[in-house]
Amino acid sequence: MKLTSRRIERNRKIELSMTSMIDVVFLLLIFFMVTSSFVQTERHLETGAQVRSKTSSASDLEPAIVEIVEVGGEYVFQLGGRDFTDQAELRKVLAQFDNKSDGAFVRVSDGAPFGLAAAAIQACKSAGFISVSYVPKSTE
Length: 140
Description:
By secondary structure, the protein is an alpha/beta fold. Helix content is 29%, strand content 19%.
C-alpha cells in the first residue's frame, strides 16, 4: 500500500537557492560596515610629549606683567624693575615683547585709580597683545 502518490526519483540533484544566501551575505556585510569603528591604532597616534628644540621661542619668555603700585605717594606703572609714569612710554616698551600671543597681565593694587588700570590695559592692547587680563593684587 502506497501512502504517497509521488514517484521517487533516484538521480535527482539537490539545488540550493543562491538568492537567500546572497541576501544573508549582504546583510552581514552591511552590519559589519555600520558597526565597525575606524579608529587609529595606538602606534599611529600622536604622542603627548613634544620634543622641544634648544632655541628659545616666544612662548619660552615670561609673560608681560604690568603692575600698578604706589611709589613715593603716587601710583606708577611697573614693568619688571622699571617704573613708568607715562602710558606712551609703557606702550613703547611693551611693543618690544616678542610673546604677544601669550597675552599680558595688568595687576592692580588696592586703592589705585581706575584710570591707571584702564590706561595699562589700553597700552597692552595698543602694543599688540592678543589678550589682556586684569588681576587684582591682594594686600595680604
